[in-house]
Structure formats: structure tokens, C-alpha cells
Design a protein that fits this description.
- By secondary structure, the chain is mainly beta.
- The protein is built from 3 helices and 11 strands, in the order H-E-E-E-E-E-E-E-E-E-H-H-E-E.
- It has a 4-stranded antiparallel β-sheet with strand order 1-2-3-8.
- The longest helix is centred in the N-terminal third of the chain and has 14 residues.
Length: 438
């Protein structure tokens, strides 16, 4: 219909709807987006066209959600419009069309809702990587051995779901309900389970490496033999019926109840996330804190003598003059918290240390042993690294501009995105074993 045939009020309404819908991609829920194509069929009828999109990217199993259109005259009160359009599993996408009558002199807005309603669905062994099931109803669904890597499942209902042996690495399960779910031997490494309901769930033998369980409900949860290395248990809810290995129950107590003055001699806190914990005056003699994540942990007055402190991350941690710790660890703490630009550290042992983001600009690091240390994002610009040992060190994004690397040994080091601009190379052993000189 030519523009001149539009009534003034109809065109105004159409323009507002065009601005609202923009004729482009919109996200009905979560990351699930479709492209809406609005148009007028005559002066009083409005048509919406869109093509369904799978919630699982190719080449995974194609799953198309249901759609429900809503209308409003004030963007506050919304009412259902038309029938709910059913989705499907498998097959290809479809083109949907919806007609709506426009009332004279009244603005009208449209909102499209995509709905995941798949209770009891069978996804055994399916490839569902990066799927967007946000807020979906997956009650009792079977995901045995399914690939849910990087899947989006926030606020989804997975009550009673079978997730045994599933790959849930990097998945977003924040706020999801996994009440009574079977998650045995599943891999949830790096998954976000913040505020998730895992009560009565069985995670026996599951891998939760670096998983966030902050605020999660773990009451009556089975976590026997689960790997909780670097798992955040802050504000998680547990009770006497939570089956949790003694080591991780101790970690939970430390981060949630504090451990001021507590006797933790010879405690195994290796690979534990004890960040932000209160360990003031704690007795940690002989404890194993190797690779512990102790960022912002208060260790004022703590006794760490004879403790295993290899690879402990002390960024933001608190030491004071009463903290008893070996000289090497105190120096590491100083470097990552106070910096050491221009310091003379010749010949010292800084191996197996977390020195990430440390400031050692223009420092004298000749013959220093940095073997297996993490120096990622550290500033070593202008530093003297003559004869330094950097075997298998992590130098990702390390700044080495103008550094002197004469006779330094970088065999096996990771130098991804390292900045060597203006650095001096003379008989320098590079990561691949070759010798470089300039």
C-alpha cells in the first residue's frame, strides 16, 4: 500500500512499532534471538514475520523453541496474543507469521517470547554444545553422556535430570534447579553454579575443577569423591547430611565461618579456594597450601612455618610483621602486592611461584631461578635477566621490553603474547631449545 493511503494515526503506530522492533534481531529470552519483520497488510492489520532459530548452534542437535506473542499499549502491561506456536527437535527452521488488528488512535507494542518446554526429553549422547536453555523446563530430561560444553542454563529447571557423564565444562547453571539430579561422574570444570539448587543431587565422582558453587544449596547433596579443586564454596549451604570429603568440609568451614586462631597444623588445603578467608593467627605449621587460591586472604599473625607453599596465590593477601613464613614466600608476597621495581634480587630462588601481575620493572634479576613460575601479565621491562633460569615458566602477556636476556634459559616457557620489543638476546635459549642472539 502506498504511503499516501495510510491514515495519519495508522502510520504513527506503524512507525513506533518499527522503532520498537527495528526489523532486526531481538532476543526473546536469554541469548535466543530471531529477526522480526514487521509490516502493514492494510490500514488496520499488522503482520509480524520471523524465522525460528535453533537454541543449539550447528553442528549440534537442532532444537527449536516454542513462541508466544505478547502485546501491550504501554510497555508495562502485556497480554498473550494468538496461539502458542510449537517448536520441534530436529529438522529445519520454519517461517512464522502473526496478524494483529490495530485499534484506531492507539499505539501497540509487540514482544516475542521463546519458550523451552522439554520435560523428560531424551538427549542421551547428543551434541548440545553452547545451547541456550536459559530458563527452560528440562524437568527429568536425560542428558546422559551429552555434550553441554559452554551451554547456557541459568534459571533452568533440571530437577531430577540425568546428567551422568555429561560434559558441562564452562556451562552457566547459575540459579538453576538441579534438585535430586543425577550428576555422577559429570565434568563441571569452570562451570558457574552460583545460587544453583543442588540439594539432594548426586555428584559422586564429578569433576568440579574451578567451579563456582557460591551461594549454591548443597544440603543433602552427595559429593563423595568429587574433585573440588579451586572450587568456590563461599556462601554455599551445607548440612550434616551433605556427603563431603573431610578436606573440602574444612575448606567450606574456613571460607564461611572463618578460622581465626584455628589449629590447622598439617591440614591439606592444596588446590583449595580459600580466597577472602579470615586466617588471622591460624596455626598452619606443616599444612599443605600448595597451589592454594589465597587471594585477599587475611594471614595476619598466622604461623606458616614448614608449610608447603609452592604455587600459592597471594595476590591481595594480608601479611603483617607477626606472620611467620619463610623468606622466599614473604618476598613473593611483597612482589605481587607491593611490587619490586629496581630491586636487586640477584641469584635468588623464585621458582614455582605465582608472580602474576608483579612489578619487577628494571629489577636486577641476574641468575634468578624462575623455573615453573607464573609471570603472566608481569612487568619485567628493562630488567636484567642475565643468566636467569625460566624453564617451563609461564610468560603469557609478560612485558619484557628492553629486558636483558643474555644467557637466559627459556626452554619450555610459554611466551604467548609476550612483549620482547627492544630486548637483548645473546646466547639466549628459547622455548623450543634454539639459541637466539641479536
Amino acid at each position: 500500500m502506498p504511503m499516501t493511503a495510510f491514515k495519519r494515526s495508522s502510520f504513527a503506530r506503524f512507525l513506533l512499532m518499527m522503532l520498537w522492533l527495528s526489523g532486526g534481531p531481538v532476543a526473546p529470552a536469554g541469548q535466543r534471538s530471531v529477526t522480526l519483520q514487521p509490516g502493514l497488510t492494510n490500514g488496520t492489520r499488522f503482520q509480524l514475520l520471523w524465522r525460528s532459530e535453533s537454541v543449539v548452534p550447528a553442528p549440534g542437535l537442532q532444537i527449536f523453541p516454542d513462541y508466544q506473542l505478547h502485546t501491550s499499549t504501554d510497555l508495562t502491561n502485556w497480554v498473550l496474543t494468538g496461539e502458542r506456536l510449537a517448536g520441534n527437535i530436529g529438522g529445519t527452521n520454519r517461517l512464522f507469521s502473526m496478524l494483529s488488528d490495530l485499534s484506531a488512535g492507539q499505539m501497540q507494542f509487540f514482544r516475542l517470547e521463546s519458550i523451552i518446554e522439554l520435560p523428560g526429553a531424551d538427549f542421551i549422547g547428543e551434541d548440545l554444545a553452547e545451547a541456550d536453555f536459559s530458563g527452560g523446563n528440562l524437568f527429568g530430561a536425560n542428558f546422559f553422556d551429552a555434550n553441554l560444553h559452554h551451554a547456557h542454563l541459568p534459571d533452568a529447571d533440571l530437577t531430577g535430570a540425568d546428567l551422568r557423564f555429561a560434559n558441562l565444562t564452562n556451562a552457566d547453571l547459575s540459579g538453576a534447579s538441579l534438585f535430586a539430579a543425577k550428576v555422577l561422574s559429570a565434568d563441571l570444570s569452570f562451570a558457574d553454579c552460583q545460587d544453583a539448587d543442588l540439594s539432594f543431587a548426586n555428584l559422586d565422582g564429578a569433576t568440579l575443577f574451578a567451579t563456582s558453587l557460591r551461594g549454591a544449596d548443597l544440603r543433602f547433596c552427595v559429593l563423595n569423591e568429587a574433585d573440588l579443586s579451586f572450587t568456590s564454596l563461599h556462601n554455599a549451604k551445607i548440612d550434616g547430611q551433605t556427603l563431603l570429603d573431610a578436606k573440602w568440609r574444612t575448606v567450606w568451614e574456613i571460607v564461611n565461618q572463618g578460622a581465626t586462631g584455628r589449629n590447622l597444623q598439617r591440614a591439606d588445603l592444596s588446590f583449595a579456594d580459600i580466597s577472602d578467608a579470615d586466617l588471622r593467627r591460624a596455626d598452619l605449621r606443616g599444612a599443605d597450601l600448595s597451589a592454594a587460591f589465597a587471594i585477599r586472604t587475611d594471614l595476619s599473625g598466622a604461623n606458616l612455618l614448614n608449610a608447603n607453599l609452592r604455587f600459592i596465590d597471594l595476590r591481595g593477601a594480608k601479611f603483617d610483621t607477626n606472620t611467620l613464613v619463610n623468606a622466599k614466600t614473604r618476598l613473593i608476597w611483597q612482589i605481587v602486592n607491593e611490587g619490586g621495581p629496581g630491586r636487586d634480587l640477584r641469584g635468588l630462588d623464585l621458582s614455582e611461584a605465582i608472580l602474576a601481575e608483579g612489578n619487577l620493572r628494571s629489577a636486577n634479576l641476574a641468575n634468578v631461578n624462575f623455573s615453573r613460575s607464573f609471570l603472566n601479565f608481569a612487568d619485567l621491562s628493562g630488567a636484567d635477566l642475565t643468566g636467569a633460569t625460566l624453564l617451563n615458566a609461564n610468560l603469557t602477556s609478560t612485558k619484557l621490553t628492553g629486558a636483558n636476556l643474555t644467557r637466559a634459559n627459556l626452554r619450555g616457557a610459554v611466551i604467548t603474547d609476550s612483549d620482547f620489543g627492544g630486548a637483548v638476546f645473546s646466547n639466549t635459549i628459547m622455548p623450543d631449545g634454539s639459541t637466539r642472539s641479536n
